[in-house]
Amino acid sequence: MATNPDALSPARPTAPAPDARIPDGPLDQKWKRRRFEMKLVNPANKRRYRIIVVGTGLAGGAAAASLGELGYEVLSFCIQDSPRRAHSIAAQGGINAAKNYQNDGDSVERLFYDTVKGGDFRSREANVYRLAELSLNIIDQCAAQGVPFAREYGGMLANRSFGGALVSRTFYARGQTGQQLLLGAYQALARQTAAGTVTQYPRAEMLELVVVDGRARGIVVRDLVTGRVGSFAAHAVVLATGGYGNVFFLSTNAKNSNATAIWRAHRKGALFANPCYTQIHPTCIPRAGAYQSKLTLMSESLRNDGRVWVPKRPGDARRPEEIPDSDRDYYLERMYPTYGNLAPRDISSRAAKTVCDEGRGVGPGGLGVYLDFRDAFARLGRRVLDERYGNLFEMYERITGDDPHVAPMRIYPAVHYTMGGLWVDYDLMSTIPGLFVAGEANFSDHGANRLGASALMQGLADGYFIVPYTVGDYLAHGGIAKLDEGHAAFRDAERDVAERTRRLLGVGGRKPVDDFHRELGELLWEDCGMARSRESLTRALERIPRIEEAFWRDLRVTGTGEELNQELERAGRVADYFELARLMCWDALQRNESAGGHFRVEHQTPEGEAARNDAEYAHVSAWEWRGPGEEPVLHKEPLRFEHVPLQQRSYK
Amino acid sequence: MRIFLEIWRQRSAADEGGFVRYDVPDVTEHMSFLEMLDVLNRRLVEAGDPPVAFDSDCREGICGMCGFLVNGQPHGPLRNATICQTHMRHFADGDMLRLEPWRAAAFPVLRDLCVDRGALDRIIASGGYVTVRTGSAPEANAIPVPKEAADRAMEAAACIGCGACVAACPNASAALFTGSKVTHLGVLPQGQAERRRRVVSMTEQARAEGFGHCTTIGACSRVCPAGIQLEVIARMNRDWLIAALSRREEEEPVAIAPRSSPMRFYEQAPPKTQR
Ligand SMILES: Cc1cc2nc3c(=O)[nH]c(=O)nc-3n(C[C@H](O)[C@H](O)[C@H](O)COP(=O)(O)OP(=O)(O)OC[C@H]3O[C@@H](n4cnc5c(N)ncnc54)[C@H](O)[C@@H]3O)c2cc1C
Ligand code: FES
Questions:
Q1: Which position among A152, A235, A411, A639 has the lowest Cβ density within 10 Å, counted as fewest Cβ atoms?
Q2: What's the pTM?
């Protein structure tokens, strides 16, 4: 892969734009119209169609359950030992919906507007509008499933506010919203399992996508218990395999979150959109030592009542309680008087990095800022706050050994979410016909920055309300040839998988896989993290291949492929991360502007805010794989803003 | 600090297992228990030995993936915490800790500290849901839920499905697990329509999976990382009694997939249907 950035001027000719197939008509009629135009599958034929759904998080669980209800034969795969354990379970804060139950001026239009603006004008208006519309149905669906949302005394649903919005539209179930929403989807999935429409394959990892005659026709899977590798054929494949934040090694993602499924699909022809858009979450527990295995998020709902500060004077060694207000810098309130502690994530994270770079960070290594509840305790009392955040306070104390009732929390930004993902059209279909992508795995709705409580909303919108329709439309159009697992394409794919496993086991080096992963992650955090520059990205593009070479020279994976082998599982995922990491840097280098989570130090306003370049970069960057070490090809999907006028984001 | 470990090693479900001793000299108090095992595993790999297999995912105490016995205690000594959320500051330099997988007939060992908990999924599939088709739900605020009911439902729904309750129980009963779902849905208006049927099929399935009967010893609740209270079992029993007394002949509990062994899907021939 060339690393000469000058070869990347935006004027360079690029490949044709992929067609997003956005329906015509007024914004608020597009989804209605699309649904009406869809072809329907004859109910009697539905069970003859087999659909593979990889992933059982909110997106995959909801999609598999809903497709099963419709009568299709659904095969559902996940890595964990039960579908209920998908990474979605860890979401704490809540889920947005434009119900306007608080009568504070919310509406579908406002949620749409906030999301487009929050995404720094790098998302598709039509998709975002549909998301805002569907948010209403999601809450209805989940409440009917028995999700124990927080309630007011009158029995009505309660709301809280979240970063990036001035209305209170976030629904929550204590600090365990993701858990409760996922259990709702899981129970719906379990019901279909009992009904015989869905077959579950837990402890199974998809290692290859099978494409026949240009269509996605199945997957190759490794049984993580026995190590056996086998194939499943289907009429359509849905990937709902989550985000790729773990490419950084340290992130708030669950340990098994990974990019292999989408990366394999990318190598088989699916374009990968906006890989450089990663979200760094402002409120995580700082890392404690070199052995750190992952980072823990403290829900940003804490920012509703907690105030973020650092000492005014660098190196102030006093304990936080001893520092008077006059010596504290409540920097978010100072810099963003309107939004204050609720400024969007990218802005809050960068502000934390700035004050730490100034030497005013707190805790070991100076990599932390305070999140202080002193004033909230005085104002609301302990009982109210414990009701709101009790389990978060406990979690913090359990991990750090410090009680947030006594001293402020220490927090620091950490990698949290990836806005990039496989490119999909309005129907959530990738550039491979028959391959649908849902949830965090696609790039669709959040542009360059996702607002809090919007990922759960998107995952469930995709899974319950979009994919079940659009997959049906794809099937109803016909033309899908008969084939089974005996087809040569499956044999070839299985052989490739076996060969990769053999290679990983056969390196015969000395170092465990995590060593390489950590090294890659640290490099990305430094060079393609919260702030990027042409220099850092060029450096990263030179250094990643060196770590990759060392990996293939000095890796040691013990054991065999025919057993439960967690080192082998991780090694396969890390091998894919090297290629993905390069694409991320390549994309970041090509995007000569700052937008949302992508902050290029060369492109900032005099106040240090992200400076977009709408004239040249108001597009989705969708990358085509050309082979290992080859330069990827850029396809640009232009973005038009007809309803939310392009403007510099301001949260002042 | 230095920790001595005695860990159950078993290569697969079919192999014999046994305890092996390890010494981890470089432990710090801020490490989580699983990070301590990561450190051990790193050394084992460097030495060319197979690392200890243990399950984990979120490492935040919410997914329920982790769990094993530490000196006989499910999830170790800390109350209301999973082992992934237990830090080494709760142990002392020189401690000798014995780690073994959940012990229950319904949870076959797959390797080392990993077990098959599929039985819990099948209990849920037998009735632990509200039947509501996607898209058919009424407006969410149309059915008010008293705050007390919502709070009680949330407390029961907090179960993470880790299986510690079963491991703690001398009868290997899954009553706390089953009772938490029965209670979660049973106290909400949305769960009423299927309330009786649910409790019957779920308890029936639990029995068929080989879980023992509850004799209200209470060990389950003491080790539960999610703090589920014994009260959920009392509620389940009451619902069951009402359901049993008012059960009509034709209302047989739904049949559910047969109890499967730890045998995995590729031990049967892969599907070969014309597609
Ligand atoms: C700590 C934390 C807190 C969060 N809090 C919030 C919040 O409050 N509000 C909000 O809106 N968002 C929140 N988010 C973001 C949100 O949780 C995620 O974006 C969302 O849950 C992703 O859901 P998903 O269904 O796309 O994927 P996931 O839940 O990540 O599920 C991925 C699934 O794919 C499976 N899988 C992956 N690869 C393979 C493979 N190769 N083969 C087989 N199976 C595979 C996995 O086993 C899993 O079942 C939070 C995220 C984190 C990390
Ligand atoms: S790893 Fe998720 S609960 Fe312990």
A1: A152
A2: 0.95
Last residue of a domain, one of B61, B77, B111: B111
- Whether the Cβ atoms of residue B29 and residue B36 lie closer than 8 Å to each other: no
The C-alpha atoms of residue B164 and residue B224 are separated, in whole angstroms, by 6
DSSP A439-484: GGGB--S-TT-PPTT-HHHHHHIIIIIIHHHHHHHHHHT-------
Same domain, A64 and A143: yes
> pLDDT, tens digit, for every residue of A28-71?
999 999 999 999 999 999 999 999 999 999 999 999 999 999 99
Amino acid of residue A438: A
Q: In this structure, are B52 and B149 located in the same domain?
A: no
A47 a catalytic residue = no
- Mark whether B105 and B126 lie in a shared domain: no
Residues A240 and A301 grouped into a single domain: no
Assigned token pair, A612: 């977009």
What are φ and ψ of residue B146, in 5° steps?
-55, 140
Q: What is the pLDDT of residues A553-568, one digit of tens each?
A: 999 999 999 999 999 9
A562 CB neighbours in chain B (<8 A) are none
> Are B89 and B207 found together in one domain?
no
| Number of domains forming the structure of chain B | 2
**Do A422 and A382 contact (CB within 8 A), yes or no?**
no
- Identify the domain containing residue B236 by its residue range: 117-250
Query: Would residue B255 count as lying in a domain?
Result: no
Q: Choose the catalytic residue: A85, A215, A222, A345.
A: A345
Q: Which of the residues in chain A have pLDDT under 50?
A: 1-11
Nearest CA owner, ligand 1 atom 10:
A453
Residue B247 is predicted with a pLDDT of 73
Residue A100 has a CB neighbour count (10 Å cut-off) of: 18
